[in-house]
Write a structure and sequence with these properties.
The longest helix has 22 residues. This protein has 2 domains: 151 residues, GTP1/OBG domain (Spo0b-associated Gtp-binding Protein, Chain: A), CATH 2.70.210.12; 176 residues, Rossmann fold (3-Layer(aba) Sandwich), CATH 3.40.50.300. It is α/β, with parallel strands linked by helices. It has a 6-stranded mixed sheet, with helices on both faces. The protein has a 5-stranded mixed sheet with strand order 3-1-8-5-6, covered by helices on one side. Strands 4-2-7 form a 3-stranded mixed sheet, with no helix packed on it. Helices cover 21% and strands 22% of the residues. It is rod-shaped.
Amino acid sequence: MKFLDQAKIFVRSGNGGPGSVSFRREANVPMGGPDGGDGGRGGDVIVRCVGGLNTLIDYRYQQHFKAESGIPGAGRDRSGARGKDTILKLPVGTQVISDDGEAVLADLTKEGQEVILVSGGIGGKGNAFFKSSTNRAPRKAQRGETGTEMWVWLRLKLIADVGLVGLPNAGKSTLLSVVSAAKPKIADYPFTTLHPNLGVVGIDNHEFVMADIPGLIEGAHHGAGIGHRFLGHVERCRVLLHLVDAAANDPIKDWKIVRSELEAYAQILADKPEVIVLTKADAAPEDYIAELKQAFIDTGAGRDIHFISSVTGLNVKTVLRRIYQAIETGKAEEEKAGQPQDSGTPEWSPLG
């Protein structure tokens, strides 16, 4: 199934049903009086968070969603039935954003969560409602309230425990393919990965979800490359696994580029726990790797720095254990603080 993390759709709630103008007509009951019933309420458009989905591809080709209108009222004081709701099933992590990109209308983070996006119109009153001591036979009824319509953006932010970040060709897809059953495309040219990939990683009878985020480049927070859309996926990850190609010309510069993009996009990304991993260690001498690791420490990157080779398996399990430890620490801190993992849509553009 093709991955799609953004879609624009049109939603419209149902109109309220019109009230009825009717008078009671039975044998031996002259001047029976008004008995027109009320119209039914229009249906709502509801977004529902469901499990088992990780793409918005269903909303690529069908973009218009309308709820049913309420049924008109009838004689004998019969009220019309309510219009049927339209329910949109969305993956966990989906945000519904206004057409102008300014407001978050719904943020679906838990399975089973529901939000009424647009409410149906109220049904019109029948003529029985307007009967009074001075008007015993009213011949008017309300038409029913018109439904609400609008265009909205659907934006999916993958919810994963670990987000793989780094420049293109840093080895993110290779690592994910080694530690999980995911089969991302792997090649020796930049931007091989064009869509985020998810994989379930197991270590020491524990499991966590890892997301391979397509490579970032300088200027990503301004939308360069495919920056905005992929930076958004990192927001909900508890831990950042920052991969740096140890065989690159200037690994420290590469690390600084990605760090600056994370900080420029949103402060919450800069504050997330980060594990730095020097990849492709099998392609560099051991003494060089040791010097490079010390150079990172001297730069202020911290001491949580590791080196691996996804091809030979060197230190891969050690890094996975460190990641799981960071995830558990993050969960404990979230429960203690009682705060969500991300803070909305910083500087989001629908064209991102």
